[in-house]
């Protein structure tokens, strides 16, 4: 419990600092993380750093919002890397400044530790240089020191999701380079994003096949829905896939598949045992 509280100090500082980028940690934050790590190791526990890599703000909540909450409550560190911060191609969405306000309000609710926000344009990742996208994700991996990565399934209907997934897979090889000086990746998992993963109609590509289910309970599902509601004009009325009813129903279904009390589903495609 003490370790979890100490690990939460950076999150609190992270959102109250003025005049600094939200992803820059102050010295007291770094010290608190260090103390929390010592506490967990002393207790025989291990703090794991996760990086959730997504194309757009809101994808991280749709795909893994309740799991992020659970990991943070358990004392782990979760960072989020979001490629697109420009919504020029989207109608009925807030401007860039409003979007960032929504983003950090949602991340605050989930307990996310750091956010790495790119400046790529929504719905136009296919027009961006592939290498630049990979390098941005690599930088997020370096700065976060993450050993476990969650990203989109490569067969999602949304083209930005497909590109993000492929670039993330490529960036994850960074630790294999002898000069990279970053932790080895232990796990890579794909998540499902309602209204995109479920619309994979090209059956020549392997569909999302979940093999890992994280039990989150109804409380965290409701918190996920509340965090998603921080984003303006994202939620839709039932029966849209981004409605509260469907999100709760999907979690109940995934829980039923795995004998859990509500769950989020993932497809683990790489695992490295220590």
Report on this structure.
The protein is α/β, with parallel strands linked by helices. It has two domains: 1-46; 48-271, Rossmann fold. It has eight helices and seven strands. α3 (59-73) links the parallel β1 and β2 (77-86). The protein starts with a helix and ends with a strand.
What is this entry, summarized?
By secondary structure, this protein is of the alpha/beta class.
Radius of gyration: 18 Å
CATH architecture of the largest domain: 3-Layer(aba) Sandwich
Quantity of strands, as a count? 7
CATH class of the largest domain: Alpha Beta
Strand order of the largest sheet: 3-2-1-4-5-7-6
Mean pLDDT equals 86
Q: Compute the separation of the termini in Å.
A: 25 Å
- Order of SSEs, N→C? HHEHEHEHEHEEHHE
Fourth CATH level, the homologous superfamily of the largest domain: LmbE-like
Please tally the helical runs, counting DSSP H or I stretches of 4 or more residues: 8
Unreliable runs: 1-32
**Tally of individual domains:** 2
Q: Give helix % range.
A: 40-55%
């Amino acid at each position: 419990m003490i370790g979890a509280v100490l690990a939460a100090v950076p999150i609190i500082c992270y959102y109250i600092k003025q005049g600094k980028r939200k992803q820059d940690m102050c010295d007291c934050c770094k010290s608190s993380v260090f103390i929390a790590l010592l506490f967990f190791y002393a207790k025989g526990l291990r703090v794991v750093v996760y990086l959730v890599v997504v194309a757009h703000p809101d994808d991280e909540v749709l795909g893994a919002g309740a799991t992020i909450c659970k990991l943070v409550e358990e004392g782990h560190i979760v960072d989020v890397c979001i490629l697109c911060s420009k919504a020029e191609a989207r109608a009925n969405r807030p401007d860039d400044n409003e979007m960032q306000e929504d983003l950090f309000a949602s991340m605050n609710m989930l307990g996310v530790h750091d956010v790495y926000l790119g400046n790529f344009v929504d719905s136009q990742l296919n027009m961006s240089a592939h290498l630049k996208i990979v390098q941005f994700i690599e930088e997020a991996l370096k700065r976060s020191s993450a050993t476990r990565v969650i990203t989109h399934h490569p067969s999602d209907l949304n083209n930005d999701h497909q590109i993000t997934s492929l670039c993330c897979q490529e960036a994850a090889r960074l630790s294999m380079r002898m000069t990279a000086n970053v932790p080895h990746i232990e796990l890579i998992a794909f998540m499902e994003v309602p209204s995109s993963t479920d619309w994979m109609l090209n059956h020549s590509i392997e569909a999302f096949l979940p093999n890992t289910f994280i039990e989150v309970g109804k409380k965290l599902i409701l918190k996920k829905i509340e965090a998603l509601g921080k984003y303006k004009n994202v939620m839709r009325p039932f029966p849209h896939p981004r409605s509260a009813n469907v999100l709760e129903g999907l979690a109940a279904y995934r829980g039923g598949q795995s004998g859990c009390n509500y769950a989020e589903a993932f497809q683990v495609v790489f695992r490295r045992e220590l």
